[in-house]
Amino acid sequence: MNLIISLLSGFITALIGITPPGLLNMTAAKVNLKEGKRNAIWFVFGAVIIIFFQAYLAILFARVINIRPDIIILLREIGFGIFGALTVYFLWIAKKPKIKKAKIKKSSKKKRFFLGMLLSALNFFPIPYYVFVSITLSSYHIFSFNASSILTFVIGAVLGSTLVFYFYITFFQKIEDKADYLLRNMNTIIGSITGVVSIITLFNIIRYYLR
């Protein structure tokens, strides 16, 4: 039962983290439109290999700091500062992003595979994201840092990421207008998310000092 919960936790965590339009899923969709599904799938395959290692290393790091409450509260305080600053930036300072049509030159599936690995490796967001989520889930006793749970969680994250990529590849033309809308309002969306995370983090910090 615990392994099923870990699998679902990783799956849902990946869905939440990768569903908003970003460099990886939008590139996968563009590759599909320009070069066909086979090259797009090779791109996704390269991307999820890196996601596997990023998630696995992130949770191993989270396991180390999870046994140090002083480090956890320090990270929460740093995280509150970072997320608070990001909220202010995205809601009131950042300019609206301009939609640019990606230009993709036709290439072989081998090059698309390595492009997926490269772009995924350049995306550092998954590491702090999975550290934060795994520690949070652990604090609510939803996830435990044993070897089998970690591996199952990571497999769930890979499956969730793959599903989102496949969704973008298969249905992008039908959702392109909505994707453009999301891109135009991405600052508000990101700012709202970081604002909610800031409030939750502040609540946890206050609860830690008042207990």
List the helices and strands and how they pair.
Layout: H1 2-18, H2 23-35, H3 37-66, H4 69-93, H5 109-122, H6 126-139, H7 147-184, H8 186-210
Helix pairs in contact: 1-7, 2-3, 2-5, 2-7, 3-5, 3-6, 3-7, 4-8
Describe this structure in words.
The protein is mainly α. Helices cover 83% and strands 0% of the residues. The protein contains eight helices and no strands. Helix 1 (2-18) runs parallel beside helix 7 and helix 3 (37-66) packs parallel to helix 5. The chain is globular.
What attributes does this structure have?
211 residues, mainly alpha, 8 helices
* Poorly predicted parts: none
Spatial extent as radius of gyration: 18 Å
Principal-axis shape equals globular
Largest sheet: none
- The residue fraction in helices comes out at over 70%
Number of distinct beta strands: 0
Mean pLDDT across residues? 83
**What distance separates the N and C termini?**
32 Å
Number of helices: 8
| Structural classification | mainly alpha
Output the helix-strand order: HHHHHHHH
Strand content: under 5%
In brief:
By secondary structure, the protein is mainly α. Helices cover 83% and strands 0% of the residues. It has helices at 2-18, 23-35, 37-66, 69-93, 109-122, 126-139, 147-184, 186-210.
